[in-house]
Amino acid sequence: VVYIEKILKTQRVSIIVGGSNSYIEKLVEDHMFMFKYKYGSCYIWIDVGRSILNRRVNMRVDKMANTGLVDEV
């Protein structure tokens, strides 16, 4: 919360990227943050079915493993 308040005090447009939909929903709806009510905001996110998301994540992990992830770790 402290970091969010610091960022918002800069009077710059804040962009939150990444995280799950549940993370964004918590940020928007939770009484501790209350972005929806306290700040002029616009929310854009893509709601993807779990099967599609799992397929994309699996493809990405396979690609990372094939390009040296194991050696890097």
UniProtKB/TrEMBL annotation:
Source organism: Solanum lycopersicum
Gene Ontology molecular functions: ATP binding; transferase activity
Keyword field contains Acetylation: no
Record keyword Disulfide bond present: no
Pfam families for this protein: IPPT
GO biological process: cytokinin biosynthetic process
Lineage of the species this protein comes from: Eukaryota, Viridiplantae, Streptophyta, Embryophyta, Tracheophyta
Family, similarity comment: Belongs to the IPP transferase family.
Protein name: Adenylate isopentenyltransferase
Keywords: ATP-binding, Cytokinin biosynthesis, Nucleotide-binding, Transferase
InterPro entries associated with the record: Dimethylallyltransferase, P-loop_NTPase
